[in-house]
Amino acid sequence: MGCLSQILNKNEADAIGENALPDVVLAPMSGITDRAFRTAVRASGGGLVVSEMVASHAMLTDVRAEMQKLQFNAAAEAPVAIQIAGWDPVMMAEAAKMAEQMGACLIDINMGCPAKKVTGRASGSALMKEPVLAGEICSAVVDAVSLPVSLKTRLGWDDTHRNAPEIGYIAQESGISMITIHGRTRTQMYKGSANWHEIANVVQAVSIPVLANGDIISPEDAKSALVASKAQGVMVGRGAQGRPWLLAQIADHLEGRDIRSAPDMAFRYQQICQHLDMLLTDYGMRGVRLARKHLAAYCDYLPQSQDLRLIATQSERPELVFAALAEYFDKEACHAA
Ligand SMILES: Cc1cc2nc3c(=O)[nH]c(=O)nc-3n(C[C@H](O)[C@H](O)[C@H](O)COP(=O)(O)O)c2cc1C
Question: Most buried of 20, 169, 217, 326, CB within 10 angstroms?
Fold first, then answer.
C-alpha cells in the first residue's frame, strides 16, 4: 500500500474506500486548481487533489474571494486536501478547523509560496527563515484537527540557506505526517530546473513520507524523480494543465501497469465543456476569462486547434466558445470517421 493510503487510512478510511490511493498528488496552484480543474483531474483517474492556497487570516475574516477558493463538493471530489497559508499559529489552527469541518481529508501547510504578498508577512517560503515559528505553526495545526497534516516547502530560501532537511525534521517532530519538497529555492522562484537529487537530503533526515515536486511532466519524469530523490511519491502541477489525465498515467507507470492512453476525443469534448460550464457556475461571467488559460492548455494537446484557441482565448461570450468547441470536435470526429 502507498504512503498516502497509510496516512489517510489512519483517519479517513471512508474518503478512499477500498482502493489504495496512488502516491501521485495534484499540486496546489492558485488560480488553477479550483473545483473545476480538480474535478477534471478526478474524473480522469487522478487520486488526491489539493486546493489552491487559502490565506488563513482571510478565511477567518470571510473575505469572499478566499472563501470561494474553498468551494468544493466533498462527495464528488473526495479526497481533497485543503492548503492553508499564514504566519500566526492561532489563526492557522482556526483555519485548519474550518477546513476540517468543510470535509477536507488532509490539511496542507504552505511553506513554499515565493510571492511577496505572502512571504512579506513571514508566511509561505519565508517561514523557512523562521524555523521556530514554522514548528509552532505545524504543532498548532496538528493539535487543532483530527486529520493528518502535511507540509509543502522548498529546498531553502536561497543558495546559502538550503535548510529543507532541518525544516522537514522540525515538521516531523511537530506531528506532520508527510512533506512535499519543490526542488527549488525561494529565490529561484520557477527558474532553472528542479533539483530532484537534493530532495534526497530531506528523505534522509525524516522518517515520514516525502513527495518530490517540480518539473515532472511525464510518467518517465516521475520515475526519474523518485530514483533521484528516493521520495515515496510525487506531486505534479503545471504538467497536468491541459491534460488532467497525466496523474493517472503517472500512477500507471509507477505501479507497473501499461500507461493508459489519453482519453478519446468524445471524452475530451465532454470534459472541456464540463470544465467551462463549472467555471461559469462558480464565477459567473468572470469564468469566461478564467477559462482561457485552461482552454489554451487543452489546445496544446489538440491537433489543428489554432482557430479554436483564438476564439477560446479572446471571446467574452461563452456561447461562442461552446460553439467553437462543438465545431472543432465535430470536424475531428469527421476526420476520425
Ligand atoms: C500558477 C501557480 C500557482 C501556484 N500556487 C501554489 C499554491 O497556492 N500553493 C503552493 O504550495 N504552491 C503553489 N504553486 C507551486 C506548485 O504547487 C508547484 O510546487 C510548482 O509549480 C512546481 O511543480 P510543477 O513543476 O509540477 O508545476 C503554484 C505554481 C503555479 C505555477
Answer: 169
Which residue has a Cα nearest atom 4 of ligand 1? 29
Q: Three-state secondary structure along the chain? A: CCHHHHHHHHHCHHHHCCCCCCCEEECCCCCCCCHHHHHHHHHCCCCCEEEEEEEHHHHHCCCHHHHHHCCCCHHHHCCEEEEEECCCHHHHHHHHHHHHHCCCCEEEEEECCCCHHHHCCCCHHHHHHCHHHHHHHHHHHHHHCCCCEEEEEEEECECCECCHHHHHHHHHHCCCCEEEEEEEECCCCCCCCCCHHHHHHHHHHCCCCEEEECCCCCHHHHHHHHHHHCCCEEEECHHHCCCCCHHHHHHHHHCCCCCCCCCCHHHHHHHHHHHHHHHHHHHCCHHHHHHHHHHHHHHHCCCCCHHHHHHHHHCCCHHHHHHHHHHHHHHHHHHHC
**Ranges of each domain in the chain:** 3-254, 265-336
Query: Counting every residue, how long is the chain?
Result: 337
Across the 337 residues of the chain, what is the mean pLDDT of every consecutive 10-residue run? 80 54 93 94 93 88 77 76 93 93 93 72 84 96 97 95 97 98 95 97 98 98 98 98 98 96 97 97 95 98 97 97 97 75
State residue 13's pLDDT score: 47
246: nearest Cα among 224, 222, 211 = 222
Question: Which architecture, in CATH terms, is 3-254?
Answer: Alpha-Beta Barrel (3.20)
Active site positions, annotated: 113
Mutate to test the pocket of ligand 1, among 30, 109, 151 (most ligand atoms within 8 A of CB): 30
Whole-number Å distance between alpha carbons of 30 and 112: 13
